[in-house]
Amino acid sequence: RKEVEQDPGPFNVPEGATVAFNCTYSNSASQSFFWYRQDCRKEPKLLMSVYSSGNEDGRFTAQLNRASQYISLLIRDSKLSDSATYLCVGRVISNFGNEKLTFGTGTRLTIIP
Amino acid sequence: GAVVSQHPSWVICKSGTSVKIECRSLDFQATTMFWYRQFPKQSLMLMATSNEGSKATYEQGVEKDKFLINHASLTLSTLTVTSAHPEDSSFYICSAEDREGNQPQHFGDGTRLSIL
Questions:
Q1: Which residues of chain B have pLDDT under 50?
Q2: Taking a C-beta distance cutoff of 8 angstroms, is the pair B95, B38 a contact?
Q3: Contact A89/B104, CB-based, under 8 Å?
Q4: pLDDT at B47
Q5: Which DSSP letter does residue A97 get?
Q6: Whole-number pLDDT of residue B101
Q7: Angstroms from B109 CA to nearest CA on chain A
Q8: Are B33 and B96 in contact (CB under 8 A)?
Q9: Which of A66, A63, A73 is nearest to A6 (CA)?
Q10: What pLDDT, in 10s, does the model give residues B93-109?
């Protein structure tokens, strides 16, 4: 079983719609989580951190449920520029302070005009 | 914000050639850098963790003699793919850990390697 699992999609969504992605993780030692965005043939870029209390950044809302080991991302009023692959990422920091990120396969989103 | 520069961005070369990729942290010191590989439609897979002044730590299944990593300074790590073959063709991305900042890692632009 992969440490971080996502539905690969693709999700084809009309402009202006709301879309939600989910992600599950198996490593309970993961201390923090992030959503990254990756455009085709580009490096991943941090979209937002994910907290248990839920956090919002403009049209984006992220939520972490530690009991269910589940992470979500909600995009409201989707724009054409939101088309990308969204990566769910878990982070573990060892006792020595070393960091390791584990990436999901990503969920491909295409916003249709 | 913190910037990581990766060079070259694209390499096409013949089978058997060795290819060196550089990763630089431009405005912060990175004691730890990471090298990832991403095949089409797959996730980023960590290849190795590079620590300044010491040997890199390789993930299981990654050949250390094939993928040579050098992290000689606090701002530069290099990955050399030795005697590259077509199956080594991939997107290689480096990142650097900025322990002063809040972002987990800062990523370079990536290097697309194509071996003919």
A1: none
A2: no
A3: yes
A4: 95
A5: S
A6: 62
A7: 5
A8: yes
A9: A73
A10: 999 987 766 677 889 99
Q: CA–CA separation, A40 vs B40, rounded Å?
A: 10
Query: Of all helices (H) and strands (E), which one includes residue A51?
Result: none
Other CB atoms within 10 A of residue A31 CB: 10
Q: Which residue of B has its CA nearest to A44?
A: B107
Question: Which tokens sit at A69?
Answer: 């080991």
The amino acid that residue B77 corresponds to is S
What are the structure tokens assigned to A18, written together? 């709301």
HSE (CB half, 13 Å, CA atoms) of A65? 10
Tokens for A111?
Answer: 């916003």
What pLDDT, in 10s, does the model give residues A52-80? 888 999 999 999 999 999 999 999 999 99
Question: B44 vs A103: CB contact, 8 Å cut-off?
Answer: yes
Over the Cα atoms of chain A, what is R_g? 14
Nearest to B59 by CA among B40, B44, B78, B77: B44
**Is B87 in a helix, a strand, or coil?**
helix
The number of residues making up chain B comes to 116
When pLDDT is averaged across residues A16-29 and rounded to a whole number, the result is: 92
Backbone conformation region of residue B47, classed left if phi is above 0, alpha if psi is from -120 to 50, else beta: alpha
Comparing CB atoms, the residue among A32, A43, A97 nearest residue B110 is A43
